[in-house]
Automatic annotation (TrEMBL):
It holds the Pfam family Pantoate_transf. The keyword Cytoplasm applies. Binds 1 Mg(2+) ion per subunit. Signal peptide: none annotated. The gene is panB. This is 3-methyl-2-oxobutanoate hydroxymethyltransferase. 3-methyl-2-oxobutanoate binds at residues 44-45, 83, 113.
Length: 276
């Protein structure tokens, strides 16, 4: 059965942990879906891991629609959450509505995600009221990297920790069905989780959250540009892939590949006529 906002609400009540992974293409989404993940996030992290930018600010609506639609075709049961890219929701409530609508209509998103607290509550409210579920995103919000002055843990001092609590309550009040907490001290994330009625999904926010999310290239060991402290490597797929690529190159050079089992046959008499 297709997972929805109801799945998230029920998990918050029952205490069952929610799982989310990022994906950007059909075949990866299909593998994750078959594994039983609750939600697949088409993150704007695609700017980093797919497109090779050094931040997410250059990611466009067209990028998100292109990859979102591919993931949605592979996700039979998992809820597909698509990130709203930088400047697709900050300019006006109208722009935000139009762009959230495009992600649902053109990419088949089950929900959209956007970064920010009180400052984006008007936007969250409008999108939610239009019938598009919104996942909020607080703590380290990578689209604001230029304002933060780099990627680092957030909300460690009293002022910013209190701001996180206020923002979390505000996005819930505005209608968000869940909130991602990124790079937030574990104790603070646990406290926020305890006071919210909507589930928190942590990344670098400890085990006290209602669920977890990881970028798949990070958790598979496929992305080596940098590895944040919160990443657990569940596989070393990077080494595995590099080995397979090398084997293929060596076997092709030596003539070991392709062997007879990988070749198509033609009748001898046909061949004889061809060579006459
Ligand atoms: O873009 C992304 O992958 C994200 C997750 C890190 C939450 O926003
Ligand atoms: Na993102």
């Amino acid at each position: 059965m297709k997972k929805t906002v109801t799945t998230f609400a029920k998990a918050k009540q029952s205490g069952e942990k929610l799982t989310m992974l990022t994906a950007y293409d059909y075949s990866t989404a299909k593998l994750m879906d078959e594994s039983g993940v609750d939600a697949i996030l088409v993150g704007d992290s695609l700017g980093n891991v797919i497109l090779g930018y050094d931040s997410t600010v250059a990611v466009t609506m067209e990028d998100m629609i292109h990859h979102g639609a591919a993931v949605a075709r592979g996700a039979k049961e998992a809820m597909v959450v698509v990130d709203m890219p930088f400047m697709s929701y900050q300019t006006s409530v109208y722009d935000a509505l139009v762009n959230a609508g495009r992600l649902m209509k053109e990419a088949n998103a089950g929900a959209v995600k956007l970064e920010g607290g009180e400052s984006v509550c008007e936007v969250i409210k409008a999108i939610t009221q239009a019938g598009i579920p919104v996942m909020a995103h607080l703590g380290l919000t990578p689209q604001s990297v230029n304002a933060f002055g780099g990627f680092k843990v957030q909300c460690k001092d009293e002022l910013s920790a209190k701001k996180l609590v206020k923002d979390a309550l505000a996005v819930q009040e505005a209608g968000a069905f869940a909130v991602v907490l990124e790079c937030v001290p574990a104790k603070l994330a646990e406290y926020v989780t305890s006071i919210l009625d909507i589930p928190t999904i942590g990344i670098g926010a400890g085990a006290g959250c209602d669920g977890q999310v990881l970028v798949y290239q990070d958790m598979l060991g496929m992305f080596s540009d940098y590895t944040p402290k919160f990443v657990k490597k569940y596989a070393d797929a990077g080494t595995f892939m590099r080995q397979a690529f090398t084997d293929y190159i060596n076997e092709t050079k030596s003539g070991a590949f392709p062997s007879e089992e990988h070749c198509f046959k033609i009748d001898e008499d046909v061949m004889e006529k061809v060579m006459e």
